[in-house]
Structure to design on (155 residues):
């Protein structure tokens, strides 16, 4: 290597990297045209990197939006339906005198309660994608206080 030339790869006025070339194939020194071509190549690389970065950011926003939509759907539809089924099972439990049927209904009610609690945990996890919201920050703070104090929480 006898000759060396580089150009900065900058994205939004921040240096992302540098591209370097050494020794022209014909052995001649680098000239202004070589420098312009290298600068154009660096700009093209920066444009591609920025485009990929923006695409990744948009994809992440889309995923976060989907997670929140799924969390809302689970809360507003699925948990409410399971809660309604639980009320029906409770009513049937009160109306049934047969001990075997009561035991089965009681077990089903416990399973429903466990399923609802599991869904609430899943909803909480899905909503963590939105930490920048006031709700997300409150949930995170509540979680940290619970871990630090051992006090049970319900948000």
């Amino acid at each position: 290597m006898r000759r060396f030339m580089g150009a900065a790869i900058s994205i939004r006025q921040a240096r992302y990297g540098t591209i370097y070339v050494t020794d022209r194939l014909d052995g001649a020194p680098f000239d202004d045209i070589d420098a312009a071509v290298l600068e154009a190549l660096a700009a093209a690389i920066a444009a591609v990197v920025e485009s990929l970065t923006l695409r990744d950011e948009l994809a992440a926003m889309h995923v976060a939006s989907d997670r929140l939509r799924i969390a809302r759907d689970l809360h507003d539809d699925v948990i409410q339906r399971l809660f309604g089924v639980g009320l029906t099972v409770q009513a049937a439990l009160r109306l049934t005198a047969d001990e075997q049927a009561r035991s089965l209904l009681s077990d089903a009610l416990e399973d429903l309660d466990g399923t609802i609690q599991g869904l609430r945990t899943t909803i909480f996890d899905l909503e963590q994608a939105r930490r920048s919201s006031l709700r997300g920050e409150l949930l995170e703070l509540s979680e940290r206080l619970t871990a630090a104090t051992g006090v049970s929480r319900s948000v």
